Amino acid sequence: MLRLTGLRQRYGAREVLALRHFEAAAGDHWLVLGASGSGKTTLLNLLAGLLRPSEGTVEVGGQSLGALGGAALDRWRGRNIGIVPQKLHLVSSLTVLQNLMLAPYLAGLPADRKRAEMLLGELSLKEQLRARPGELSHGQAQRVAIARAVMNRPKLLLADEPTSNLDDANCTLALSLLEEQAGECGATLVVATHDNRAKARLEKCIEL
Amino acid sequence: MNLPALSFAYLRARPLATALNLLLLALGIATITLLLLATAQLEERMTRDARGFDMVAGAKGSPMQLVLSAIYHLDAPTGNIPLAAAQALARSPAVKKSIPLALGDSYRGFRIVGTNHDYPAHYGAVLAAGALWKEPMEVVLGAQVAAQTRLGVGASFKGAHGLSEGGDAHDEDDFKVVGVLAPTGSVLDRVVLTSIESVWEIHEHGKPPAGGREITALLIQYATPLAAATLPRQVNANSALQAASPAYESARLFRMIGVGADVLRVFGLVLVLVAGLSVFIALLNALEDRRYDLAVMRMLGASRAKLMGLLLLEGAVLSLLGGIAGILLGHLLAEALGAALQAAQQPAVTGWAWQARELWLLALAVGVGLAAALLPAWRAYRTEVAPVLAQG
After folding, report:
1. Mean pLDDT estimate for chain B
2. Residue B137's pLDDT band (boundaries 50, 70, 90)?
3. Which of B10, B301, B390 has its CB closest to that of A75?
4. How large is the average pLDDT for residues B278-292?
5. Which residue in A87, A92, A107 is closest to B301 by CB distance?
């Protein structure tokens, strides 16, 4: 499902990531562990097609990302990859529901309000349907970001530092939510973190 | 969810900035709209008032003053002319139609015009009530006069010396209202019509003047196009009268008014451009605030072109709303100006008339908005997603 081959990423002369080979099957849950600056976020950006690798190839579900470009890559990403960024980045001018509805619209998929409401219900956010991101707690905002990431039933779900600044209980909750939602979509989950607490939860791990 | 919904959501989330930009744009467009309406309507109205009259003969003095007083009933007359001289001119083969006017008195600021039945007939006036005057001291009221004075058929009033409000009243003679005209959209709406004999009766006190009777002006329609070249010259050179051309003097007046209107129009354009600059600054600043929003949209599958379209649409939506608000405000101001002018017994303008040129104003507003959004939209297009998300 996910295959990386001879992957290298350089910024000028500085190499920030080198990964000879990596494969993950559909439904696998992987942890990418590493200290700050080890290239975790860079790896997630390469997997999402937000960065072009300096060398090597990235294949997701049999699709080589290098073969796609411009608007086609953007659309493919929107339909096949769900991303929970570290800072969550909910669109502040939209309501919670609209933030979720944004995902299918931007990916060129039909609107699916029922799924958005179902996801918000599953994540205990039904009361916050019409709230703006500024009115949410961090935990609520994180759940909205997860719901938005799985809205289009992605093949690959990426989460960048989802447990930073969370206490133990919320760390467990965030990881279990990601696993649950990835499981419901049958998606491969890749969580990048420097938080060792995640090791106990996710069995497969690569260290950078 | 669609691009307009996204644009509206963003504009709604910043009500103060959006309202200020709208206000600025609306003020510029309203200024130009008001000028457009006022000049077009006044020009149309003055053309309508002068239609069918090729020449005005009156006492020597300023030809523009003569035209303003005799055609539009706006200025004081240049004086009176001998009735005999006017009658001689009316008999000229170069004259097809002539209408005498005798001015001098008013009622509550509305001019009392001594004339004959040809005058209302010239404007196609129709009676709303009563009949035209038959005897001296019988009057017919214009529609605006009747509405503002609340006089009707059967009412009587005393005229006052002079053509503006506040003149001494003629104590001894009462005018009797015998008819009210339906609105004509012409100068007739704001005058009181009576016979020339009424005006003589009031001022002569039973003793005709030693030098013979006088009238104020003679409105003339030429018998042939050739008369335009010969008759005014003849009148000016060979008599105590003055000939003035309504078309020429009106055009001269509009050229003079036009300079002021042009200055105001430029002022309105400057306001629109300042508003465009404000929209530009607002969108550019907003771009900094929205880098993450835009990066997230790319992350979710939006193409660069879609983001560029979003920003351009926001500029267009903002300017379209500002343009519509400006045009409505312009019409509101025109209506208010019309009410003030009507109260001052001047030719009124209305906010209920629309000009096709206003669509160009809307296009101008949207053009300014799009131009203002171009650079922010280009910067949104060029945004790299990964570094922005990493910075957040």
Report:
1. 88
2. very high
3. B301
4. 78
5. A107
Give the confidence band of B171 by pLDDT, cuts at 50, 70, 90: low
Question: Strands, E, within chain A: which ranges?
Answer: 2-11, 14-24, 29-33, 55-60, 63-64, 81-84, 156-160, 188-193, 204-207
Q: Which domain holds residue B228?
A: 55-244
Residue B65 has pLDDT above 90, yes or no: yes
Task: Please tell me which of the candidates A86, A98, A106 has its beta carbon nearest to residue B300.
Answer: A106
Q: Total domain count for chain B?
A: 2
The per-residue pLDDT for range B220-236, each reduced to its tens digit, is 999 999 999 999 999 99
Pair B39, B108 in one domain? no
Amino acid at the residue B9: A
Instruction: Flag whether the ipTM exceeds 0.95.
Output: no
Q: Is B233 in the same domain as B281?
A: no
Look at residue B168 in the predicted model and tell me its pLDDT.
64
Residue B256 has pLDDT above 70, yes or no: yes
Question: Pairing state of beta strands A29-33 and A204-207?
Answer: parallel
Measure A50 CA to nearest chain B CA, in Å.
6
Task: Report the alpha-carbon distance of residue B51 to residue B113 in Å, rounded.
Answer: 19
pTM equals 0.73
Q: Strands B191-195 and A14-24, how do they pair?
A: unpaired
Q: How far apart are the first and last CA of chain B?
A: 25
Residue B267 and residue B215 share a domain: no
For domain A2-207, the CATH architecture is 3-Layer(aba) Sandwich (3.40)
Residue in the structure block whose two tokens are 């280009």: B378
State whether B214 and B288 are in the same domain: no
Residues B212 and B310 grouped into a single domain? no
Question: Residue B74: CB partners within 8 Å, gap ≥ 6?
Answer: B68, B346, B347
Residues of chain A with pLDDT under 70: none
Considering only CB atoms, which chain A residues are within 8 Å of B304?
70-71, 74
What are the CA-CA distances from residue A180 to residues A147, A187, A188, B356 (Å)? 11, 10, 12, 62
CB proximity list for B346: less than 8 A, separation 6 or greater: B74
Number of A/B CB contacts below 8 angstroms equals 82
Distance from CA of A42 to the nearest CA of B (A): 8
Give pLDDT tens digits for A141-171. 999 999 999 999 999 999 998 888 778 888 8
* Residues A85, B296: C-beta atoms closer than 8 Å: yes
How is residue B272 written in tokens? 């629109």
Q: What residue segments make up the domains of chain A, in order of their start?
A: 2-207
